[in-house]
Amino acid sequence: MKESVLLTRASLLSALLFSVHVTHDLVLGFDKAGPQNLTVVAILLVWVCATLLLAERRSGHALVLLASIFAAAMPILHLRSLNGEFARREGALLFLWTLFALGTSGLFGAILAVRALVKRGVEAPG
Description:
The protein is mostly helical. Helix content is 75%, strand content 0%. It has helices at 3-27, 38-52, 58-79, 92-123. The longest helix is centred in the C-terminal third of the chain and has 32 residues, at 92-123.
């Protein structure tokens, strides 16, 4: 399978998992719901546009790389502040699974985005 297709799929999967993660943050009380959460819509819009509309451009790869790095960092940011009590809460399993899946897909997307940027750099006219 072409790496560009893999990058698109990994990036869209990460965006989907990110939206589930942010929803979990609201439902589980890590964040308060309100108009400020519309920032998430803007982040997802830029992420999806970079993935689909700028798929073969350096700017698209750079934006996907940035989003992927943030996705890969989510488990690190959250797991540092969770304690053993959290694991017994209702919804903890799905929350933690989403974190691990988001981190994995984000890291995979970052690797693919770096490879795409390096490949574009090699192919650039001289």
